[in-house]
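INFO batch 0412 | record 1 of 1 | parsing
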Amino acid sequence: MATACGQLVVAGPADLAGAAAAASGCVVLIFVGAALWPARANTPAPASLPLAQILALMEHHNQIQREGLKHYRAVRQYHVKYQGIKTIEASMAVEIYFDANSGKGFRIVSQSGSKILGEKILKRAMDSEIEASKDSGATALTPANYRFQLQGSESLDGRPAYILSVEPLKESKFLYRGKIWVDARDFAVAKIEASPAKSPSFLISRTLVRWTYAKTGNFWLPQRSRSEARIRIGGTAVLTIDYGTYQINSDKPHSGGAD
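INFO prediction complete | emitting tokens
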């Protein structure tokens, strides 16, 4: 799941097994991720920069965004669906507000579907996001937490992007391993495909998390996520989050890289 400054964490679902078993004898699991966007053709390749320079420009972007992004609000749409012995679903509309001094807060606007999934999964995802945001240094996408390798470049939604592989330096439910796409103009993370560094439960056989980010005004913020998990005793759980339209109040103009 994403923090305000472009740092990402995965919601830990180790406690979901009991809730889903109570609902239908099935285990439900939740992760936060993002849907894939197709790349457009005829986008110029980015300049050939060394990995160290790309990482330095990423940190520069994140620092400027932290300094400039002071407040925002949005209404997110959460939806979780488990398909196994039976199909159960839950949805929530949630208002999120962020303040650089006080952190994040959530207010449920509406909810429908399974109460157990809503209470034990969707609300847990919000709690995990708040928990991760309180120690952003431990979850930041930096060399202090990850080993990076430059894999190449491609067009992503009509913009040039670098592709980097990421490997966590420690096992944590808030870190992940996989690939990231870094916008070659602003040096913001634009897409991630990954799996959690630490499995939240022995009941989980495989997980895939995907995130997409988009530029809103002068800031890069989460746009959509999709997470899929396969359960050892059978079935698949999928969580999607539409991050909505942001209302931003920033202190100063921002550009993380070349326009």
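INFO post-check: The chain has one domain: 16-248.
INFO record closed
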